[in-house]
Design goal:
Blueprint: H1 2-24, H2 36-66, H3 74-83, H4 87-116, H5 119-131, H6 133-162, H7 168-178, H8 182-211, H9 214-226, H10 229-257, H11 263-273, H12 277-306, H13 309-319, H14 323-347, E1 352-353, E2 361-362, E3 370-371, E4 380-381, E5 388-391, E6 394-397, H15 424-447
Antiparallel strand pairs: 1-2, 3-4, 5-6
Helix pairs in contact: 2-3, 2-4, 3-4, 4-5, 4-6, 5-6, 6-7, 6-8, 7-8, 8-9, 8-10, 9-10, 10-11, 10-12, 11-12, 12-13, 12-14, 12-15, 13-14
C-alpha cells in the first residue's frame, strides 16, 4: 500500500517535467521541420497583385467616365481597350499611353472650341495651339472661360447698341467699349451703363413731357421731382402709357367734335373711344392721319370744282401730288391762289369813257356796289342794262349787269367753302350758287 501511494504522488512530477523538457529540447541540426514561413509568402504575393489590379482598374474606369464619350477621343478609346485586357494592359495604359492620348485629345478639343467660339475664344485658342501642349492645357483649364466671358460681354454690349430703346449716351459708351478689350467691356457693363442709362432716361422723359398732353406732362413732372433713376424708369415703363391713354381719349373727343371731320372719321374715332389704350394709340397714330388725308383730298376736289382760275390750277397740282402736297395747299396754297384771283378781278373792274354829261362812258363790272366812270367823278350806282340817266347838260348811257355780290368775282372762291362733318352738301350748294352767278355774268355781258 505504501508503494502504491508513493507511486501516485511521484507520477505527476515525473511526467510534467518530461513533457516540458521534450518541448524545450532543441532539434537536431540535420533534421528539418515543417516550412511554415514559405507557405505564408506564397499566399501574400497573389493578394498584393490582385489589389494593384483593382486599383488600376478603378483609375481607368474613372478616366473613362471623365473623358468625352465621342469617337474623336483617343483617351476614351484607349481606356475602353485597357479595361478589356489584363492587369498589365491596365498598367501600360496608365504609365505609358495616357499622357500622349491626353495631349492629342487636348489639341483636338482646342481646335473644336476655336471653331465654335467667339472672337476672344478664337484668339485665345489660336494662341494656345501655337504655344504647345502646356499652353493648350492651360487654355482648356482657365483660358477658354476667360475668353468666353469676354465674348459674352461683347455680345451684351452689341445687343445694347442695337437696341432702339438705348439712348444716345448709352450708344456712345457701347461703341467706345467695343473698341477695347475685356476690361473695357466689363467696366462699361458694371460701372458706366447704369449712369448712362439714367441720364438717357431723363432726356427721354423731358422729350415726352414736351410733346405730350396734360396727363403726360403731369406724370413726367412728378417723376422728375422724385429725383431718382427708379422713378424715371417707372414712368417710362408704365406711367407714360397710362398718361398717354388719357391724353389720347381727350384728343379723340376733339376729333369727334371737329366740324372738319368727315362722317367716316367721326365713326372711327367713336370706335377708338370705346376701345383700350392700344386701340386709342393706333387710331391717333395710324388711322387718323390716313382719314385726315382722305378728307383733305375730298376737300381739294371740291375746291377744284368751285374755285377761280388760279385756285383751280393750284388745286389740280396738289391733287396730283401726295398727301403732303394736299396739306400744303390747304394751309398756304389755297389762300395764295385766291389772292391771285381777287387781284385779277380787281384789275378787270374799272371802266373807260368821258363823263360830266358831255359824252357817254361804258362801265363794266359785277355787283350792286358803286364804281367810277371814266371822268373820275363821284361813284354812281350801276344801273341795269339800257337804263339812261340825264345829269347836267347831257346824257350818259351806262351799260352793264347787276350782280349779287359786293364787288368781287364769285368764281374766285374768296369766300371759302363751308366744311361741315360730311360737308359735301354745303360744298355742292356753294358750287351751285357760283355756277348761277357765273351764268348771270355771262348773260349780262352778251346783252351789253
Amino acid at each position: 500500500m505504501s508503494a502504491v501511494v508513493a507511486a501516485a504522488v511521484l507520477a505527476p512530477a515525473v511526467l510534467f517535467p518530461t513533457a516540458a523538457s521534450a518541448s524545450d529540447t532543441p532539434k537536431p541540426t540535420g533534421i528539418s521541420g515543417p516550412d511554415t514561413g514559405s507557405d505564408s509568402a506564397k499566399d501574400t504575393a497573389p493578394e498584393q497583385g490582385d489589389a494593384q489590379e483593382q486599383r488600376d482598374r478603378a483609375e481607368v474606369e474613372r478616366i473613362l467616365a471623365e473623358s468625352p464619350a465621342e469617337s474623336w477621343s483617343r483617351v476614351h478609346e484607349g481606356a475602353e481597350k485597357a479595361l478589356k485586357g489584363t492587369a498589365a494592359d491596365l498598367r501600360h495604359f496608365l504609365e505609358v499611353e495616357l499622357d500622349d492620348l491626353r495631349k492629342s485629345d487636348n489639341r483636338l478639343l482646342a481646335a473644336r472650341i476655336h471653331s465654335a467660339g467667339g472672337p476672344a475664344v478664337k484668339a485665345a485658342a489660336r494662341a494656345a495651339i501655337n504655344g504647345g501642349d502646356e499652353a493648350i492645357a492651360e487654355f482648356l483649364k482657365t483660358g477658354q472661360f476667360t475668353a468666353r466671358a469676354e465674348d459674352e460681354d461683347r455680345a451684351r454690349v452689341e445687343a445694347i447698341l442695337a437696341d432702339p430703346k438705348s439712348g444716345r449716351g448709352v450708344r456712345e459708351g457701347a461703341e467706345k467699349a467695343l473698341k477695347g478689350g475685356a476690361a473695357e467691356l466689363r467696366h462699361f457693363l458694371t460701372a458706366e451703363l447704369p449712369k448712362l442709362r439714367g441720364d438717357d432716361n431723363r432726356v427721354k422723359l423731358v422729350q415726352l413731357m414736351d410733346a405730350g398732353g396734360r396727363a403726360v406732362r403731369e406724370a413726367a413732372s412728378k417723376a422728375l421731382d422724385a429725383r431718382t433713376d427708379e422713378a424715371v424708369e417707372a414712368f417710362l415703363n408704365e406711367g407714360f402709357a397710362k398718361a398717354q391713354f388719357e391724353d389720347d381719349r381727350v384728343d379723340i373727343l376733339r376729333v369727334i367734335a371737329d366740324k372738319e371731320s368727315s362722317s367716316y372719321t367721326v365713326a372711327a374715332a367713336q370706335k377708338a373711344m370705346d376701345g383700350n389704350a392700344e386701340a386709342a394709340r393706333h387710331f391717333m397714330t395710324v388711322e387718323l392721319p390716313r382719314l385726315r388725308a382722305s378728307d383733305n383730298r375730298v376737300k381739294v376736289s371740291q375746291i377744284i370744282e368751285t374755285g377761280g382760275p388760279a385756285v383751280r390750277k393750284a388745286a389740280l397740282v396738289a391733287f396730283d401730288g401726295n398727301d403732303a402736297d394736299i396739306t400744303a395747299f390747304l394751309k398756304e396754297g389755297w389762300a395764295k391762289a385766291r389772292a391771285e384771283d381777287e387781284a385779277a378781278a380787281a384789275a378787270a373792274k374799272p371802266g373807260t369813257g368821258t363823263g360830266n354829261g358831255t359824252g357817254t362812258g361804258t362801265e363794266s363790272g359785277t355787283g350792286t356796289g358803286t364804281g367810277t366812270d371814266g371822268s373820275g367823278q363821284q361813284p354812281q350806282t350801276v344801273q341795269p342794262a339800257g337804263l339812261t340817266e340825264t345829269t347836267g347838260t347831257g346824257t350818259t348811257t351806262r351799260t352793264g349787269t347787276t350782280g349779287t355780290g359786293t364787288g368781287t368775282l364769285a368764281s374766285t372762291g374768296t369766300d371759302g367753302l363751308g366744311w361741315e362733318a360730311g360737308g359735301a352738301a354745303a360744298a355742292l350748294a356753294a358750287g351751285a350758287a357760283l355756277v348761277v352767278a357765273a351764268r348771270r355774268r355771262s348773260t349780262g355781258s352778251t346783252e351789253s
